Amino acid sequence: MYYVYVVDEEEHLLGVLSLRDLIVAKPETKIRDFMIKNVISVRVDAGPREVAEITSKYNLLAVPVIDQHNRIQGIVTVDDVMERVMPARAGGRRRRIF
Predict the structure, then answer these.
(1) What phi and psi values does residue 37 have, to the nearest 5 degrees?
(2) Is 3-97 CATH 3.10.580.10?
(3) Which of 42, 58, 73, 92 is 20 to 30 A from residue 3's alpha carbon, by CA?
(4) Burial of 76 from C-beta contacts in 10 A (0-12 / 13-18 / 19+)
(5) pLDDT tens-place values along the chain, 98 residues long
(6) Smallest Cα–Cα separation from 83: which of 75, 91, 72?
(7) What burial class does residue 63 get, using C-beta atoms within 10 Å of its C-beta: 0-12 exposed, 13-18 middle, 19+ buried?
(8) What is the C-alpha to C-alpha distance for residues 38 and 31, in angstroms, rounded to an integer?
């Protein structure tokens, strides 16, 4: 987990912050004061290619998945994207190299 997603009581996505930001913030600082409110996300009906484009374009390690009411339904990590988008043979070769 690289990011912390901030939601309200009904699971509506309100913001995001990095774990690093959370750790270095002063204890008295309110999360709403340093979270990013304009969250890059994908809809539940987004295809693998769209998710890959979003993670690549914004250099994200994970992207939240939201429904039509902006409620968080889960996250897709960059590892998930790589497994889904890369052909199995290329992924297999990549694993052996590293």
Answers:
(1) -90, -25
(2) yes
(3) 92
(4) buried
(5) 689 999 999 999 999 999 999 999 999 999 999 999 999 999 999 998 999 999 999 999 999 999 999 999 999 998 888 888 766 555 455 444 44
(6) 91
(7) buried
(8) 14
